[in-house]
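Repro:
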Amino acid sequence: MSKTVSELLVGVLEQIGVTQIFGLIGDSLNPLADAVRRSKIDWVGVRHEEGAALAAAGQAKLTGRLGVCAGTTGPGSTHLVAGLYEASRDHAPVLALSGDMPRAMHGTDFIQTTEPDLLFRDVSLYTETISSPAQAAAVIHQAIAASYAGPGVAHLTLPQDVLSAKAVGAASSVATLKPRSEVAPSEAEVAEVARRIDDAGSVVIMCGAGCHGAADLLGELSNRLKAPLVHSVRGKELMAYDDPRWMGGLGMIGAALSRRLLELGADVTIVDTVVPESSANLHNIASIRERVQLEFVDVRRTDALRALLAGHDYLFNLAGQSSHTASMTDPLDDLDINCRAQLPLLEACRQVIPQAPIVFASTRQIYGRPAYLPVDERHPLRPIDVNGVTKMAGEAFHMLYSDVFGLRATALRLTNTYGPGMRIKDARQTFVGIWLRKAIEGLPIEVWDGTQKRDFTYVDDAAEALLLAANCPHARGHALNIGGDTVVSLRELAELVIAINGGGEFVVQPFPEERRRIDIGDYYADDSQFRRLTGWRPRVTLEQGVGRSLAYFREHLPHYV
C-alpha cells in the first residue's frame, strides 16, 4: 500500500534516528500526528510552541542529531519562530514543521492564515512548502540535508490536504542524511597556530563545542602551555566544572587588593580556581596582568599549595562561593568550596608559612536574622542558609588553627561589597550587580519588598580593610565586622542608582518564596571594634561608589555580560 506524505515524512525521520517530535497538535497537523502514532517516534506534547522549538534545539545541541518541532496553522507557526532563534544562533540542526490550510483555501482570507515561508525566512537556512505529493520526497531530503549541512534550522510548510495525499515515489539516499563529518586542520594551519602560541607572552584557551570528545587532549594542552581554559556556552560540559584548569578570571575584591598591593611595592601571586558560575573575570586584572604571577590551582591540592605558598609573607584567603540561593539548590558544592577546601589550605600554611598573617574573607550571613541592630561580634551565630553555615565553618577552622597551632589568622565578616569588577550578569554574587546592569541597559530594576535596611562596602574600602587586618597584631585570632558609611533601605538604594544613572525605573515586587525563606531582613554592622583596632574608615561614600561603578560598567560592559 502506498504511503501518504505524512507517512513518508515520518518514515524518513524514523530512518535517520529521530525519536521525538516536540509540538502542539492542531487540525492541520492531524495527518502528521496520526502517522507519528503508528511509528516508533514519540510525540512530546507541550503547552506552547516556543517550548517545542527550545526543546528541539536543546536536544540537537546535546546530541548533534536532528531535533524536530511542530506547530499548527497561524499562531502555532508564529510561536515556533521565537524559540527557533536559539537553534539558529547556536547552529543546532533542527527541522521545524508548520501545518497549513488546504491548498484550495489559499488566497481566501482563511482564518488565522499566515505566510510561513516568509515568516521563517530569517531564522531558517532552508524554508519550503510541500505543495504537491510529487515533490514531497525531494523537499524532505533537501530540508534535512540543509539542516545538517549548516548546521541550523530548516523549515517545511505542510498543507493539510498534501499531508493526507498519497506520496509519489520514495525518499532516496536517506543514508546521507547525517551530521557533518569532522574536519581536520591542515598541517600548515596547525603549524601557524603553534607559531602564534610560541610568539605569545601568555595564552588562554577558548573551548567551544568542537572540543567535545577531546577533553583529555585539551587538559594535556592546558598543562603543557600552563594556559587556563575558558569556554563558550556549548563548551560548558567539556570537563568537570571544578577542574582546576577552568578559569573565569579573578574576583572583584581580589583584583582590587592586588592593585593596592602592587602600589605598595609587593610581589603578588594570585591563585585562582574558578568554576563557571563564579564571580571571577580576567578583565578585572587586565591593567596589571603582566605584573602579577597568576596560578590556576585547585586549593584542595595540598601538594600544589605548598609549592606556591613557599616564600610568601602574607595570605589573603578570598576563596569561596557566595550565592545564597545556589547554596540551597546545590548544598554539597557549597560545602566543598567554602568548608572542605579550607582545611588543605590551612594545613599547607601550617607546614610552609606558619608565621605569615592570614586574612579570611568571612560574611555577615553567619549571623542570620538579627536579634538587634546594629549587629556586633557578640551577636549569636544563627545562619539561615547553607552558605552561612559553610562560611561559619570555614571561619571557625581559621580561628581554630590560630588558637591551637598559632597561625596568625584574622577573619573579616564582610557586608554587601560592591564596585567595579563585580558580577553583573545575574544576582548570584549580589543583587547590586544586576541592578547596575539593568540601569545601564535601560531596564526596570526589580526590588523585592524594598523596606529592608542594609549597609554597603565599596570594594576599595574592603581591600584596605584586608590590608590593615593583615598588619594588626591585635586583630589576630579574632573575627571582626566590616560595614559601610551609611544605612539605607533597598528602595532608597534603587532610587539612588536611578538618580546617579540619569534615568530609569524600578518596580517593587513581593519576595519570591524561595528567597523569602532565606532573607535576613534588616542588617547593618557595628564595626567599631575593627575601627578601634586598625583606624579603618570607609573613604568612599555610597553615592561615590555607585557613581564609580556605573561609570566603569558603562565602559566595560561587554566583558561582564
